[in-house]
Specification:
The chain is of the alpha/beta class and 161 residues long. The protein has five helices and seven strands, in the order H-E-H-E-H-E-E-H-E-E-E-H. The longest helix is centred in the C-terminal third of the chain and has 15 residues. One of its GO terms (molecular function) is protein-lysine N-methyltransferase activity.
Length: 161
Amino acid sequence: QVPYQPSSPRQVANTLALLRGRAGKTVDLGSGDGRLVLEAYKQGLRPALGYELNPWLLCLAKFRAWRAGYHGKISFLKKDLWKVNLSDCHNVIVFLAPSVKPPLATKLLAELPDDARVVAGRYPFPCWSPSSTLGQGLDQVWAYDIKEVRREVQGKAQQSQ
């Protein structure tokens, strides 16, 4: 379980700035009230969808999509992120607690395509070096290009042998 903390307008702007110019399926793991998915869709990242387990937040996200005129264009699904196959995702947004990051890093490396980009908010992935970062303090976000992360992880594994 991860406590819900809504993203600030600056966190949303920084996240989308690190995804600017990209294409392909965009997912928010633990999408909360849907604000990041809505903004991703507005900025042309499609398809855009969120995975969320909290039924109240799921309902709020769907309402916000409907109110914005995106009903049927954006999906919010009640699914456990550990049971979702991410192999067709090119942009992944993760605003989750630090304790979730190490096992999630393993899942992302195993499933994401080489051209995928992961943007983490609030807390970086502890064992990955970011391709870029934007913002300061609580508004800071980190972007990780999976091909580079894989190269780094493989290099570390070879050094330790």
